[in-house]
Amino acid sequence: MRAKLGYHDGRTMFWVVVGLSALAVALLLVGMWKAREPAPAATEEITIDPQDDGGTTLAADAKGGRGRVSLSSQTMSTEIEVSVDSGEANAIVDDEPTGPVAKILVSAVGGTDQGRKRKHNEDAFVVLPTHSLFAIADGMGGYAAGEVASQMAVDVLRSSFESEQFGGTPIAGLPKRGDELVRAIQSANTAILSQARENEHQQGMGTTLVAARFAPNRKRVYIAHVGDSRVYRLRDGSLSQLTTDHTLGAAGVTGPSAAKLSRAVGVFDDVEVDLAIDEPREGDYYVLCSDGLFKMVPDDKICDIIAKAPNIQGAVDELIREANSRGGKDNVSVILVRVDEPDPRQFN
Q1: Burial class (CB in 10 A: 0-12, 13-18, 19+), 32
Q2: CA distances from 143 to 38, 119, 199, 263, 308 (A)
Q3: d(Cα 301, Cα 176) in Å, to the nearest integer?
Q4: Pairing of strands 273-278, 123-128
Q5: How many other C-beta atoms are found inside a 10 Å radius of the C-beta of residue 347?
Q6: What is the pTM of this model?
Q7: pLDDT, tens digit, 9 for 90 and up, residues 306-324
Q8: What is the DSSP code string of 261-307?
Q9: pLDDT tens across 119-152, in order?
Q10: What is the mean predicted confidence (pLDDT) over 85-95?
């Protein structure tokens, strides 16, 4: 016997089929929408050792770089961003030809001091006149690990330039001198991280790093940095900051966490490095410093000290002395670079 489907039964079945079809379409649309959402960024929490004496610290939610370099020109007002992975760039700003003789003469002096409050000095610096390279690192981490990180950073920079071995592969889109500086910093990142992973007491250590590489024959300076150590340029009595702090405060965070770093060398597998290009002029001064200077000494006082000092050594000594006289709450490091016109007699 075959069952006979009545009118009302057929209508009910019709609406059941329609309902199930609508549900299937809705589920499909939800799935497609979820697939479009970006995956949440992986975070790695950094634990600063409790024996750290309160110096430079990294924010707990700071993230490692993705192999990116932010390149800007301070003088030419052009900014590009280069992806190390893709090697693509939108513009090249380093168009000054290399001359047969130096267009500027660069001289520099550096100094560092423990300050009045810290138990030890976690800053380190390097002055390498033969390569016109100058750098300051401000370490972080307990058990004196900050000292290790900062010293390793400047040591890797020194050895990279002295051996002309910068690690990694050239980054497409970057000028050669800037590329070498960035890769040297990335090599320092790898060295510090490897050291920390091998030593339990050094885990979590890291450092800021700011470096300036002058090219006298091109009349250029390449400034690379990670963290909140800074480069200023003093020109015609006006002090300009050429770097941007990598801190939570710079990202808009207020309160006690504002001073914490959002980026540091030696903490993650990859580090994002900012690279700036500036055109030095005769009479300019470039000031590289850790936060122990600019958090204690106002800009106008920095200008006044440099203007009145008999020489750059005297200016560096006085800047450090001034930071300490105002409380010396942190380690303080300063490198002062003076730009002069070359003596034409040296080319005769």
Answers
A1: exposed
A2: 39, 11, 11, 21, 40
A3: 36
A4: unpaired
A5: 9
A6: 0.78
A7: 999 999 999 999 999 999 9
A8: BS--BTSSSS--EEEEEE---TT-EEEEE-HHHHTTS-HHHHHHHHH
A9: 999 999 999 999 999 999 999 987 679 999 999 9
A10: 41
